[in-house]
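[agent] plan:
  1. take the single chain provided in the ticket
  2. run structure prediction with default settings
  3. attach structure tokens to the ticket
  4. add a short note for the reviewer (M.T.)
[agent] executing step 1
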Amino acid sequence: MWRPFYGFQVLLLRKGNSLIRKLSLVFASAIVAAMAAAQVPTSPVHPALDAADPVAQVRAHRSWEYGPFVNWGTGLGNRDNFKFFFTGIEVGKVLTPVLPAKAFTGQFELAGNIIPFWQAYTPPPHVQTFTYLGEPFQAQVGGGTYTGVSVTPVIFRWNFLTHSRRFQPWFQAAGGLIYTTHKFPPDQLVPHGTPGGTSVFNFTPQGGGGVHYFLRPGRSVDLGVNGVHISSASLGDRNPGVNASIQVQVGYTVWR
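[agent] step 2 finished; step 3 output follows
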């Protein structure tokens, strides 16, 4: 392998390991803070209310939540031929009592998730036209299926106050990290060495909303929709990324 590219890969790997350590520290700190908050006494709820109103039960107890989810998504704009599928486990904790904010009255929840299986489906390798210094040229571009893992260590979620006994709506903002076994998104292929245009590490700032539907006390099915941006933060020479994608998430949650 050409040594300059080897040096670039070593540098990228070191940066990635540092990012993972930092994100892991943030995730651990968030869990510690949530556990500390869990020790704060909460208002008791009458057992009859628990059975009749699962949403009020979670609200009063400031419950923990955890459970699996699956996600399907599609890119937008010039990435509308990109598709995504992944599955993982999410953990969260309602941290505050109900905070008055008029139409936005609700509770703050801190959560995070781990995605051990993450895939992106892109067009197969093909020839694509690019522009350099105003002049068009054609180059071979990679493609196919990209596999990796992802972690979202910080999810800031706001659970709206509702009078419903079954539905709990929410919105959120979050940020995560993806590692793929090959550089994503697909990049130009060169005959000697590996181009540095994209990266095996990408960040995922995101935001969206959804709803929990309680089947019974302590159990809900969940539907969420997120807008996700995928970017390497210029870890490579270029940062083509995926400017926007829509991700639809379905999950099952246990509340404690």
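[agent] step 4 note for reviewer: The helical segments are 3-38, 47-52, 54-61.
[agent] ticket updated
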